[in-house]
Write a structure and sequence with these properties.
The complex is a heterodimer. By secondary structure, chain A is mainly α. The longest helix of chain A has 33 residues. Chain B is α/β, with parallel strands linked by helices. Chain B folds into two domains: 191 residues, 3-Layer(aba) Sandwich (Rossmann fold); 128 residues, Response regulator (Rossmann fold, 3-Layer(aba) Sandwich). In chain B, helix 2 runs parallel beside helix 11, helix 5 crosses helix 6 and helix 11 crosses helix 12. The termini of chain B are far apart. The chains are: A mainly alpha, B alpha/beta. At the A-B interface, helix 1, helix 8 and helix 10 of A face strand 7, helix 7, helix 8 and helix 9 of B.
């Protein structure tokens, strides 16, 4: 066996942590988009990831569509599910309080999970890696090519979202809804459409996360809940509603898990992440990059 | 008035029940079963129920047991201890069955042991823990309780014996944090000194984890001769894939008996090649040599099950096969007499089932030793093959 030094190990932990963290970050961004517009914590966010993975498996591995075609179709299909979630579960509720809406998303997540179990069964599914499975050796660490895809898609998502929110009218309108929905609707912004759009966007990002992570971790019908919890942890760590916070939170969470498992004990991997989360909340209740002023005017 | 009418109707039904019930029962043998068909452990209960129904169907088509029909009453406990206890009580008091199969889960089986003991009814559990049949205080076997699955310690012994033969002494273990993984971990740690094996690293992972590279990196750092991976579900495959990607294939890899589905070889996408795993006969019917005592039953069960349900056999279904066929065997010999069934089962020898050749005795209500219960299997060309 070739030399496998401690420094190499550390680098390996870092790469693994960043990859897993990127997935958490994408889930976290999805949470934030919906939260910013509606103040709802969408607990069905993890199901978008699961659906993204499973639909992609169906289109690419079973139906045989090429990657370049299956990818956008999957994202579109999951986006439709996101829209349906808004239309069927969120909008029909009369006199919604934020809590009722959150409970509605829990119900929706159970329904989506159950439907997925009926369609795909309980077995896990595999997806071929986008650019082969030959690992790359770099600084003594072994890197799967798929890692680059996961991290790459996080970067692309972040760039596109920044452009969307900063440079387009719709994006600015969405930010306005987040700021003050009543004033926004007085300005002629259709708040209901913005909510629909926020659900579509989160669903699309969830789908991207699911598609890119499936070649690494496989995907089955009940994977969503765990990813949602981890993603939510990342959101709280980074600060509810803050996009840079979500990314930072996700990456930190993933890296802590990886280093914790490698250097201390893998049995307490999840505990390390939670301890850091609690510690941060103790000293900065609004999260790393969250703003106290904003969190005061929010209802949840 | 209405109340009175209701009362009369109710009384009538009661009488019909009393008169007709025994009359019907006279030409059937009732066997009860409690499986976790839905809920968290449905991967156990679903194939168990399907298997039990199929076996009962086959028996009845072939003329039943001594001319009497076998009537199988199956309840779903949904993996819930309360429901499982109620179902067992119902089978005893209401359905008045000759014997009970199940429950599917160790925890639930342990919970119903006192009921079976008190009601003096033979119970053949489909769960693995040795605590189901062994009273830990006295070290004796519970009088009325049997179990058919192999204990986890047997799988650990099968793996360690194989290592000893291969000259492996320094290993790393990586286990799931589920009940199955934890039990495996404690058996691996307990038995290691007996086989002269040193455990260099003891890692674990959650049942929904995405990537196990960190744990394997640590293992790679301590350079063991072999790795044992012990869990159920898809994450055990992720471990294998990470192990291959990290370029660790020069380290011998052992999987637990939770690996016994061809689907796992497929999902490993080539990473399972050369992996060792101890499996019961029903998982690998084609790999068994022609003179193997379980060859015939394993091949038949696989053929019939896949033909009927159009899905591959699960090793868990095999436990229901063993439990039901043992009880049927007893019914054939002694009829529906609970005490005689118990005595018959306790003295049953040489019963070739799906998971081993069972030799029960007063000191062993599991009836298995690891040499009979497991074959060491190696993955070769994407299929199971005997390791020796």
């Amino acid at each position: 066996m070739e030399e496998f030094s401690f420094a190499n190990q550390l680098f390996q932990y870092l790469i693994t942590g960043l990859t897993v963290g990127s997935v958490y970050a994408m889930v976290a961004i999805g949470f934030n988009i919906i939260y910013n517009v509606t103040e709802i914590i969408n607990l069905a966010q993890g199901e978008f990831v699961m659906l993204g993975g499973l639909i992609m498996v169906f289109l690419h591995a079973v139906a045989g569509l090429p990657l370049i075609l299956a990818f956008p179709i999957t994202v579109i299909l999951v986006t439709l599910v996101g829209m349906l979630l808004d239309r069927l579960a969120i909008r029909p509720i009369r006199q919604p309080s934020v809590l009722t809406l959150i409970i509605a998303t829990i119900a929706a997540s159970i329904i989506i999970k159950g439907t997925a179990m009926f369609i795909w069964g309980k077995d896990p599914f595999d997806l071929p890696a986008f650019s082969g499975r030959t690992p790359i050796n770099f600084l003594g660490a072994v890197i799967q090519p798929q890692y680059f895809w996961v991290i790459g898609f996080l970067i692309v998502t972040v760039i596109l979202l920044t452009l969307f929110f900063e440079k387009t009218i719709i994006g600015k309108a969405m930010s306005a809804c987040a700021d003050n929905p009543d004033a926004a609707s007085l300005m002629g912004i259709n708040v209901k459409w913005m909510i629909l759009l926020s659900f579509s966007l989160s669903a699309a990002i969830g789908a991207v996360a699911g598609i890119t992570v499936t070649p690494i971790s496989l995907m089955e019908y009940d994977r969503g809940a765990m990813l949602a919890i981890k993603g939510f942890g990342a959101v709280v760590l980074g600060g509810l509603g803050s996009f840079p916070g979500a990314i930072l939170g996700g990456l930190i969470l993933g890296t802590i898990e990886s280093f914790g498992a490698g250097l201390i004990s893998s049995g307490y991997k999840d505990a390390f992440a939670l301890i850091v989360l609690l510690a941060v909340l103790f000293f900065r209740p609004s999260g790393l990059l969250g703003s106290v002023e904003i969190s005061k005017i929010k209802r949840f | 008035m209405r109340m009175k009418k209701l009362l009369i109707v109710a009384t009538c039904f009661l009488f019909i029940g009393i008169v007709v019930g025994p009359a019907l029962a006279a030409d059937t043998y009732k066997v009860g079963a409690v499986f976790s068909v839905t809920g968290r452990a449905s991967f156990l209960g679903d194939p168990e129920k399907k298997t039990a129904l199929m076996v009962a169907d086959e028996i009845n088509k072939a003329g039943g047991i001594n001319g009497k029909k076998l009537e199988l009453i199956i309840y779903d406990d949904e993996g819930d201890a309360t429901k499982s206890t109620l179902a067992v009580k119902k089978l005893i008091n209401q359905d008045k069955v000759c014997a009970i199969l199940g429950p599917s889960l160790s925890g639930l089986s342990i919970a119903v042991v006192p009921i079976a003991q008190q009601s003096e009814i033979p119970l053949v559990s489909a769960a693995a823990s040795y605590k189901i049949v062994t009273d830990e205080k006295t070290g004796k076997q519970y009088k009325w309780v049997f179990k058919v699955p192999q204990s986890d310690s047997m799988a650990a012994e099968a793996i360690y014996s194989h290592m000893k033969k291969e000259g492996i002494t320094k290993i790393a273990i990586i286990t799931g944090t589920t009940g199955f993984g934890k039990s495996g971990r404690s058996e691996l740690l307990r038995l290691a000194p007996q086989y002269g094996i040193t455990i260099l690293a003891d890692e674990s992972y959650g049942p929904r984890d995405t990537d196990m590279t960190a744990q394997l990196t640590k293992i790679k750092g301590v350079a063991p001769q072999a790795i044992v991976n012990w869990s159920i579900g898809p994450t055990q495959v992720t471990v294998l894939r990470n192990y291959r990607d990290l370029g660790m294939t020069n380290i011998v890899f052992y999987q637990s008996h939770g690996f016994g589905s061809k689907k796992n070889i497929e999902l490993a996408a080539g990473a399972a090649e050369g992996v060792y795993t101890p499996l019961g006969a029903c998982a690998t019917p084609d790999a068994l040599p022609a003179n193997h005592p379980q060859k015939k039953v394993a091949v038949e069960y696989n053929k019939n099950y896949t033909g009927k349900y159009n899905e591959p056999v699960s090793t868990f279904g095999g436990h229901a096969w063993d439990a039901l066929n043992l009880v049927v065997d007893a019914l054939k010999a002694v009829g529906c007499d609970r005490a005689k069934i118990r005595d018959y089962l306790e003295n049953k020898k040489g019963f070739a089932g799906q998971h081993g050749v069972f030799n029960f005795s007063a000191n062993d209500h599991n009836g298995l030793v690891w040499q009979d219960a497991f074959n060491m299997i190696v993955v070769k060309n994407g299929d199971w093959a005997m390791a020796d």
